[in-house]
Amino acid sequence: MDLYFSPMACSIATRIALYEAGKGDEASFHQVTLSTKTLADGSDFYAINPKGQVPTLRLDDGQLLTEGAAVLQYVADANPASRLAPANGTMERYRLQEWLNFIGTELHKQVLAVIFNPRAPKEAKDFARDAVAPVKFEALAKALEGRDYLVGDGFTVADAYAVFVLTLCGFAGIDRSRWPELDAYYARMSARPGVARALKDEMALMSRN
Which H or E element spans position 8? Predict the structure, then answer.
């Protein structure tokens, strides 16, 4: 299994899932420079994934799987003992998909993608940070009141994706401490061995670039 990723992009959620599933040492990781859409050897990433996006997962049979929510669920389902996703067909599985969609569309795309887009005007960045972010992160905080995890009673790939957006808050100028539930949740998640290892590995790669 090969994961095409960019340091501290949303593909870190897949790295977390692989580590949490105990598959981190079995997978191969290929770094993508998103600004140029190239791999470390200079080859064209578009030749692998015409969308030019990470995460991209090459399966053992050669098939490619793209889009974060799909990739995360594949990793979970390929490693059922890890319990990274509830069983298909259950209400909890739909809750997982609900959170993957919320994080992907409301937090990742509406807030972080705008703030980090070099082509977005300052007004759009300020609106995403100051008007959209408080409403969306408040919804996440309320959902975590009295809960340790987003879905069920254990860590799932929805939590892995949430770690990504909460980690980027500091880089985006969003004060996570204004929501104590999110601060406490992030502390719990980042203390997990698989999450801590993924954050350490990707931060180290960021520092080299």
Answer: none
